From TrEMBL:
The keyword Membrane applies. Belongs to the LemA family. It is found in: Membrane. Keywords: Membrane, Signal, Transmembrane, Transmembrane helix. One of its GO terms (cellular component) is membrane. It comes from Chitiniphilus eburneus. Coiled coil: none annotated. Residues 1-24 form the signal peptide. This is LemA family protein.
Amino acid sequence: MKRLLLVLTTLLMLSGCGYNALQAQDEAVNAAWSEVLNQYQRRADLVPNLVNVVKGYASHEKDVLTEVTNARAKVGSLQVTPELVNDEAAFAKFQAAQAEMTSALSRLLVVSENYPALKANENFRDLSVQLEGTENRITVARNRYIAAVQSYNTTVRSFPTNLTAKMFDLKSKPNFSVENEKAISNAPKVDFGTQQ
């Protein structure tokens, strides 16, 4: 009887410790992270083709083309592993490299506006559409990752699962942040000039 009571007490304690919930949420974070990486890789794979098409029409825009190529090289040089989501410094480097890539691609697309023949090129249009779709997929994947991390971090920090998390050395995971938080906190200044 005493053994049965001990077994039942142990089972009740273990069921409320949250270990399984932590494991399930950690797996959800890893799955969401894999999708983020998948979409960023898709974008990186489109870049060389896009740069080559633009080179043919805007070869004197070397600064912009070099910027995009360098940003892609930086993204490609990162050691991206599933453990990256457990290392805040590595996660910040990853996020900075991806932000640099986004910025360089934006400048490239702005430059393309100056070349009507480039905009009319079928390959450029197709690549632009694929890039736009990929950017949308990146946004969706990042949102899913953010939600998975929020759920995991809430569990890690909530009582009584925080005790289990400490026992197994499970820590909060880093999340995406806004790169230019100060800049977006100010309202944009719009000046239409004076009409005549």
